[in-house]
Design a protein that fits this description.
alpha/beta, Rossmann fold
Amino acid sequence: MHLIETRSLCHAYSTSTEDVLKNIHFVADERQRIAVLGPNGAGKSTLFRHFNGILFPKSGEVLIRGEPITKANLSEVRRFVGLVFQNPDDQVFSPTVEQDIAFGPYNLGLDADCVAERVDRVCEMLGLEGLRSRAPHHLSGGEKKRVAIAGVLAMEPQVMVLDEPTAGLDPQGVKELFGFLNDLPNSCGVTVIYSTHQVELVPEMADLVYVMERGEITGAGTPEEIFLQEDLLARAHLELPALPRLIRSLQKHGVAIDPAYTYHDAEQSFLKAFGKL
């Protein structure tokens, strides 16, 4: 049984006669790291909003642990699947950071001691201890993003869905955030699903990649399987990450070097190719 499964999912907004999601088949399992890639307008955000019942399908269905999402089980679904929006201003609204993080757990009906323990824990995990009394609207974009993630994580979901989590972050912020997200499956047992344009990081932090174009899933597989398909990447306006791109260029110039996608594998390929192993 999958944590999340969509079957022939289609969706159309009331302002349009055309489906913005078309026959989507998507699966997420325990402790996975799943990247969803595609150009703006491909339907990534619309798909994500189906995972916790913000949107409902025009046709097809969305299953959470094998059960369709209905109005009757919506609160349980939203406890199970936490969604972090691209713009943290759409999610962070309480007078202080601490109150914002506590909002979700209180809505779950937890007592004050349990809520306080969860707030303490996620503040430590995300480095927010010094910001607890601050007003969110005084924070930087990266700090707001961490507060939004902390508020969802404090509800202890089994799946975290993040819509363009690196939007507006500087390179150091991207590195720190992805380092944190990359560890969640092991540290907390959480499945992480995210959309991103940062293809360089995908080989390091995705077990499974979906590619979307014009409301359809046009590719699914491991990072290696996806990045071997140059036509697929070109149609989705995606570039091959720098390391495999460099290795392919060297191969075309006659250098005997093994393909690699992660930094560690690329290092081993270069050492082997140049006689250092």
